[in-house]
Amino acid sequence: MPRLRPLPSAAFGGLPTARAQDSRGAGRPLGHPLREALCGGLAALLLASYGCGSPPPPGIAFPDGWPLSAAADPVSASAGLVSTTDEFATRVGIEVLEAGGNAVDAAVATGLALAVVNPEAGNLGGGGFMMIRLADGSVHAQDHREKAPLAATRDMYLDTAGEVTDRSLVGHLAAGVPGTVAGLWEAHRRFGSLEWAALVEPAVELAAGFETTGRLLSTLDAVGDQMLAFPAAARLFMPGGEPPPLGSAFRQPELAAVLRRLGDEGPHDFYRGETARLIVAEMERGGGMMTLADLDRYEALWREPVAFGYRGYTVYSVPPPSSGGVTMAMIAGMLERWELSELGWNSPETIHLMVEAFRRAYADRNEYLADPDFVELPIDELVSEAYAAARAATIERDRATPSAEVQPGLASIVDESHTTHYAVVDAAGNAVAVTTSLNSWYGSKVVADGTGFFLNNTMDDFTAKPGTPNQFGLVQGAANAVAPEKRPLSAMSPTIVEDPDGELFLVAGTPGGASIITTVLQTIFNVVDHGMNAAQAVHAPRVHHQHLPDMVFHEYRGLPEATVAALEAMGHTVEERDPGPADAYFQGGVSGDVQLIRVLPDGSLAGWSDPRRGGLALGR
User: How far is CA 493 from CA 110, 392, 413, in A?
Assistant: First the structure.
């Protein structure tokens, strides 16, 4: 495999064999000078990130002031495409494909690279889910979600008065047993083609040093102060109490050593060797509960994918302990009764119907879904046609149903998720979608001393106390209570869609905590119902409702005033997300970070990385 090189300032420069999306300027408001230069010259033929591409389908108009263009063309490719939230990681995936690796090889190498360059979400100390569709049409779902340690107890996050503490969010007790390493290894063991060590090497090279980016600094500025209580994290990521300077070489020698051992020994080191001992020593120093026995017992699992139809297409996603596939099936089953294309994209009528379906599906998600190895789940009933018909029949076309009438409760929402998603399709038609997470930005804020990586705070995804919201505002039931070796409920939804002929059509996913499910579905609706291309479907503003709190959230500047007024007249409470700091990546007011690849009728690929967080899609 060629030695990894940092991307040049223009992402397509120096990559003569690859078609690239510019990651820095994509989606900036009109008037950006680089956009004007590109759209005015020959480069417009090579790059359409700035809104100088195809017009949107008839009837599609993004709101005035929305900074992402509806006139954009996705990256095109014929021999493979990789889309991730980070340009370095995307380049790693493309190099693996160019070296003869398949989509699973590229996904493994990309995931390990994200653990280096995207430390707030890409991880060795977290977990996630993977969807794989092979060129022969077989579909596989992998669960490498974290597990509760053996010493975990149902009420471990309650104080003496029975109230929820922050111990599930920050510190050593917040960490579940990590699954990422086991998941990547197992995917490679079953479906990979290149040598494991070769797939680890690009991450080792990145750990030796890469240029500190604005994205990394924006996350450290937001939550870096929380790391100061944990010496190993502060030493590496907040030297002298401050983030490293923009453009400086960010070196992670301890992580590089872990990765070298991983390349040499595979997961044995992580779960039974030197890295395992370093994790347990950190747990002992900080009063955590994870032991060598916990690590040794961890396994990534293959589960039966959730499959459901939508307007002739077949959607595959992950089953519990992810709620993504089941909840999307419930929502799609209700909405298929109305022609969203005729009602209009993001019209008040369309948003109303989506929100009412979201509301009902999340109410059931929060009550019934959990780790299927611990709780008997009514999945067949929830995804049935009879269920969809009964739920849809309760939706009134002109009136919002208060969530208290669906299921009572109150909550507030905190949008601090940090998960990441990446998508890969190779020349043979193998496809991989991976969503991986530490849960919050930088997880528990704890770095196991000597390892260089953060441990997750996924234990917060359990129900600490029924009826009490977690950090994402989700009010969940007793089925998701803490128990030893149980996997907490997740919203992660890596998704693969087949067209009506059974051929590969879409590969998609996003981070975003509770909004993952609604974001992935809206992206599918944008393509299937509203005829958008991959770039337009990602650029489009999004809405979200999760039953509790009883609010329709929309992205900053994402809905016209008239639409908001119409929704409020129906009885909806509408809230605009805070725009956040105005930075180069338009991270404020984000509802997800979608990575999308579409297969076109001629067999070519079209992909797009969400410019909301500065990602990059590359094709070959």
Answer: 18, 23, 20
Q: Cα separation of 467 and 465, whole Å?
A: 6
pLDDT band of 22, cuts 50, 70, 90: low
Average pLDDT over residues 500-516: 95
pLDDT reading at 549 higher than 70: yes
Average pLDDT over residues 471-487: 88
Alpha-carbon dihedral of residues 373, 136, 422, 533, nearest 10 degrees? Answer: -120
Residue 455 CA to residue 445 CA, distance in Å, equals 7
Answer yes or no: is pLDDT of 26 > 80: no
C-alpha 559, offset from chain centre: 23
pLDDT tens-digit series, residues 320-360: 999 999 999 999 999 999 999 999 999 999 999 999 999 99
Within 10 angstroms of residue 557's Cβ, the number of other Cβ atoms is: 17
Q: Are 168 and 464 in contact (CB under 8 A)?
A: yes
Q: Write out the two tokens for 275.
A: 């890295």
C-alpha–C-alpha distance, residues 306 and 384, integer Å: 12
Residue 420 CA: distances (Å) to CA of 322, 417, 509, 600, 606: 15, 10, 9, 25, 20
Q: Which of 84, 110, 291, 419 is catalytic?
A: 419
Q: How far apart are CA 373 and CA 376, in angstroms?
A: 8
Q: pLDDT tens, 189-244?
A: 999 999 999 999 999 999 999 999 988 998 999 899 999 999 999 999 999 999 99
Q: Each residue of 517-538: pLDDT tens digit?
A: 999 999 999 999 999 999 999 9
What's the pTM value of the predicted model, to 2 decimals?
0.91
CA angle 574, 416, 597 (to 5 degrees): 85
d(CA 272, CA 258): 13
Specify burial of residue 171 (Cβ count, 10 A radius: 0-12, 13-18, 19+).
buried
- DSSP 8-state assignment for residue 620: -
The predicted model gives 305-321 an average pLDDT of 98
Token digits of residue 516: 């993952």
DSSP 153: -
Q: What is the pLDDT of residue 19?
A: 67
pLDDT reading at 288 higher than 60:
yes
419 is annotated as an active-site residue: yes
CA distance 474 to 417: 13
Amino acid identity, position 204: V
- Over 50: is that where the pLDDT of 574 sits? yes
Strand, helix or coil for residue 503? coil
Measured torsion, CA atoms of residues 353, 130, 514, 65, in degrees rounded to the nearest 10: -70
Contacts of 239 (CB under 8 A, 6+ apart): none
How far apart CA 139 and CA 213 sit, in angstroms, is 36
For residue 386, count CB atoms less than 10 angstroms from its CB and return exposed for 0-12, middle for 13-18, buried for 19 or more.
exposed
Kind of pairing between the strands at 574-576 and 552-554: parallel
Region of 513 please: left (phi>0), alpha (psi -120 to 50) or beta: left
DSSP states along 201-234: HHHHHHHT-EEPPHHHHHHHHHHGGGGTTSHHHH
Name beta bridge partners: 83: 423, 617
